[in-house]
Amino acid sequence: MFFSTIGEMLILFSIGIVGWYLFALLNAPVAPLLGAFFLLGALRAVGVNLPLSPVFLSPAVQVAIGLFVGSQITRETVRELKTAIIPALIIAAWALGVVFVIGGFLARVTHLDLYTAMLSSSMGGLPEMAVLAIATNAEVAVVIIMFTFRLVISVLAFPMIFKYWLAGNRLEHEEKPNESAGGKGEDFDIRAVPGLLLNPKKWQQVAARCREFISFLFNVTSVPAYHLGRDVFTLGMAGGGAFLFHQMGVPAGIMVGAMVFSVITSLAGVRIQFRSPVVFGFLLVGVGIMIADNISTKTLEVLLYSNLVWPMVLSTLLIFFSSFLVAFVIHKLSGWDYPTSFLAAAPAGLTAMTALAVSYGKNPLYVSSLHLCRLVVLKTTVPLIFMFII
């Protein structure tokens, strides 16, 4: 069982890395995430029998991203969180407005009934919305399909829009992936890998690095105990926070818990540094693999042959345009830069948008906080409102 799971993971990551390489050749934004998602999703859509991601991949990736984000937080960053109060209120009002206003509009102009249209417009809390759909005799399958469609389009479109918006505003040289994702002035270009593999001198350098690593393993006691203890302690705190928040039922609790407890250890002076662009690239591949689990041959059949195409497209367009407007309002009222506001107001993809913020050197704490606010509001408020109108 163990070796079977490892084998399946290696297959998925191998395909994901190929997708990363292909999208890097196309200069696509966030190539590890989009490349892995697109290639795996395309293979699944045409009927290739691929394993689903291992159950441990999602928690592992979420803990790692939470650790990435938390390790960068300083006391100054936390003090600045008070500026997130107004954006959080805007996001909460917008999230509810989308459900009841855009959902109501969809019910009037499409064949969807009112409850199905409103629940399909929810930008989070799919399990809760599915339960409500059952309770209201809404079409559960439609709610799930439209939610999945919007998630996939958001994860695909927002990085593209983000990159070209930056390029159009002549800011790309400032916003490209920087030290937050891989070290000061350090970068990793997967397009160079084939050339490296064919270069004998590079192989000699790799062999030398391997010898150094083996030497390190046999002389691990030479590493200061403080540094080893610090890293193990921080990892333990992140894992413990992830477990605690998950057990408490916090939305995206694994990532949020790891982030919060990493922030606590960081502010206490016990900081762990992540500066490897390769590691972060593999994390993004992991995110792409997880999202691609939502794609199957049925997805393609629904898009091509069902009468849901018009409602899905209309709903997604309305929600996207409203998110751009909300991002502009947040930018003006809070003073945040527009790219951060743009990611914080994305209609789906907490993990993906937080990873994108890390990749482009934006404030991932702001982005994840507002996404979490949206999820909490939708998960708690919508069921209560429906309780009175059912």
Question: Which key terms come to mind for this protein?
Answer:
390 residues, mainly alpha, 20 helices, 75% helix, globular
Q: Compute the separation of the termini in Å.
A: 46 Å
Largest sheet: none
Strand-and-helix sequence, N→C? HHHHHHHHHHHHHHHHHHHH
Query: Mean pLDDT, nearest integer?
Result: 78
Low-confidence blocks of residues: 171-186, 216-226
Q: Radius of gyration from the CA trace?
A: 22 Å
- What proportion of the residues form beta strands (DSSP E)? under 5%
Q: How many domains make up the 3D coordinates?
A: 1
Share of helix, binned: over 70%
Shape: globular
Task: Write a brief structural summary.
With 390 residues, the protein is mainly α.
Account of the 3D structure:
It is built from 20 helices and no strands. It has 390 residues and is mostly helical. It has one domain. Helix 5 runs antiparallel to helix 17, helix 6 runs antiparallel to helix 7 and helix 17 crosses helix 18. The longest helix is centred in the middle third of the chain and has 29 residues. The protein is globular, with a radius of gyration of 22 Å. About 7% of the residues have low confidence.
